[in-house]
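hey m, so remember when u said the tokens were messed up on ur end? i reran from scratch. heres the input so u can diff it against urs
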Amino acid sequence: MRRTARVTAADIARIAGVGRAAVSNWRKRYETFPAPVGGTATSPQFDLEQVERWMVANEKLHAVPEEDLFWRNLLAAESEPAEALALVGEHLSGKRPLPFPSLRPDLDALADRLGKSGSEGVFQQLWRRFAEQAGPRLVITPEPLAATMINLAAVNGGTILDPACGTGQVLHTAARAGAAQVYGQDIDAALARLAQLSLTVNELPGEIRAGDSLRHDSFPELTVDAVVAHPPFGLSNWGQEELGADHRWEFGVPPRTEPELAWVQHAYAHLKPGGRAVLLLPPSAAGRRAGRRIRADLLRRGALRAVVALPLRLTPSYAVNLQLWVLQRPSRTPQPHVLLADAAALGADTSGDKEILGRVETAVSRFLDTGDPTDPSFAYVVPIIDLLDDEVDLTPTRHAPAGTAGVDIARELHTVHKMLADLGTALPKSLPVLPTSAEAAAPPTVSVTDLARGGALEILGPIRDTGEGDFVADVPVLTAKDVVLGNSASGGTDERILQRIPLRDGDIVVPLVARQMVARLITEPGTAVLGRNLYLLRPNPDVLDPWFLLGHLRTGSNERLTGSSSSGLRIDARKAQIPRIPIAEQRRHGVVFRGLHDFNDLAQQVASLAADMARLTAEGLTSGRLRPTEEN
């Protein structure tokens, strides 16, 4: 008997392209919404077919994607996601038929529908659903970062090893980039099986083995052109006691507290002369005192060629800036310099992840080829002798040169000084007129949710980050970070969103996640669209003044009301309370709020320029490019 596929509220939200709160509202507002058929009171499960029929009948969805329907039906038959995906891989690769006969026609139909990409396309679609379901157990290297690691490893036509390959994503990217043969190993047998199936389904050359790479290296005699890995971090029991005399420790036995340096030497041990290793590591590997002797030897012998600190945005699963370590087994006399790069410094003024990664690739590749980086604004060549102190701390920010190389500090300072003088003159003139005191009682309030129910505004979004939807390459995308920093829409090209919502004059956007309540009024609509994880409140100006709404959203009481009880970082703008007063009075409030907004904006510009002037002056004096005048 075929079991019925079940879905959670989170699944329904992803299928419909809405937030979980929307699904919760549907359950409350519609008596016809299907009743739970399983799960618990806090995490109920619903019959997928019933939910699909309800969403189509109520115009919430045209149809459930066939891949979702199949995946849920598959999990109803095989509850372990990794095993379920492996069974699909075996069927698609012809190894053995899917053991659930009733699902075979659906799987074959999916492959037929995708035409040329057939089996490969279906496997990738289902792999994406598996990754969403795997949770924290499965750490995935973001695809753009994996591509950069492969490019830095320069594997064209060569062989590559990933000793902690997980599902084989990095190896898959390498094979697509032209690697002649890929090898992988992972301690999780289920993931290793998936990695092998992924290569087989996609007809890519490769061999994957299950096992602990540090304790039981499955390829002990193998040397390759490149090793690329995102190894596990912070392991306390990685085998240090039993591996003390291992031949791989060319630079010293890693202390028990330095598992990352064990992975570094494991990777290096598999390199051919001239081969490169690119590893994604935590920042502690560059500075922990216990590893200083190994780091020093890596530098002296010319094995470590570059350390790049990455922006947080490139690895959102971590709360620290991860680093790329680039190693190379010397085929000639070791070089006396190493490249240290702080790409985290590019995060604030660079438009997208692709641009950051492109600049990293260019700087590191040029240094490896010529010994000189192309972008001194964040990458700097450091003599190895300067790093061999008591700490051997390779954290890039610790070695950034004083001042900003390549910048005309005197000219920059003159420009900032002039702008500051102009704004300083304008600031007193923009000081707003204060409202007068009043004795009246506070007016009654109404929630944003109730305003929406009454037609005074629309609530759109938030668009969730599901990894699905279309890439947006033709218009800018307003991101949550843009809203927090007050920047113009910066997203695009690498933004994948499920729904396009063009921004209009008078719209108010509120980030779903922020350290405090942040709201921004759109006054220059242009062509930007709403990004992920943003609420959009669209007031009806005939009954609700936008500036009035914006001003009252930002009050301290609303900051408390809209913050999540479980996390101080999540904002629910729908809970905000807004005074219920006539539109004419709203507009008078709006004039006050707009005046305060303009004055605050000007004051922030003055503060920012003052900080720039202080920084540039200090850097100029420190580097000798400025000197005091007689008037100083």
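this time it looks ok to me. The chain has a mean pLDDT of 83. if urs says something different then somethings off w ur setup not the seq
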